[in-house]
Design goal:
eight-stranded antiparallel beta barrel
Length: 182
């Protein structure tokens, strides 16, 4: 009776050995995801693998947004339609330039969060207070100053890759509506 029990034990042992004979545990280096080097057999030639790290991604290129400013009041009519340029450095900040009545105004543009408390003031002063106005899109503010003493404050909403709207108020009282895109 002991012979069949011996055969069962021998069969189980043989199956376990056959199953595990093809397995080899390879430790993986968690920093590289590659196996740790195995001990070298001195009778085998040595080879060296050179691994170059991946190139770091290029910094984002600035985005140039062109905006048209349309006059909304008699003071703005004196300046006519204007063109402004926003250079977005993709860092939340950029430059803002335009010409107004022969003066080159230069300044900066910044993205602001939806909770930015002052956003909406320029829209209300230029377009009139509207309790139903909603601001959807990426918000931004822009300011510029010229050598002749005129400055401008703008608020805008970017609603697409190069599209958006806004409002601008000049220190001389000129009011403009802004349109981005082509």
């Amino acid at each position: 009776m002991s012979q069949p029990r011996f055969l069962v034990s021998a069969t189980v042992a043989a199956l376990a050995a056959a199953t595990l004979s093809a397995c080899y545990v390879v430790p993986i280096d968690p920093r590289t995801g590659q196996p740790y080097p195995t001990p070298r057999d001195p009778s085998q030639p040595t080879s060296v693998a050179i691994v170059t790290p991946p190139a770091s991604p290029a910094p984002p290129q600035p985005t140039v947004l062109s905006a048209r400013l349309y006059p909304l009041n008699p003071q703005a009519n004196k300046g006519g339609m204007l063109t402004a340029v926003v250079v977005d450095n993709n860092t939340g900040r950029g430059t803002f330039t335009l010409s107004y009545q022969g003066d080159a105004l230069q300044g900066e543009a910044s993205r602001v969060e939806s909770g930015y408390a002052a956003f909406g003031r320029v829209h209300n002063e230029v377009l009139g207070a509207n309790p139903q106005r909603s601001f959807s899109g990426r918000r931004g503010i822009a300011n510029a100053y010229g050598a002749k003493g005129v400055n401008v404050q703008c608020e805008y909403l970017i609603t697409g890759p190069t599209m958006g709207t806004g409002a601008c108020l000049f220190s001389d009282g000129a009011k403009y509506q802004m349109h981005f895109g082509g």
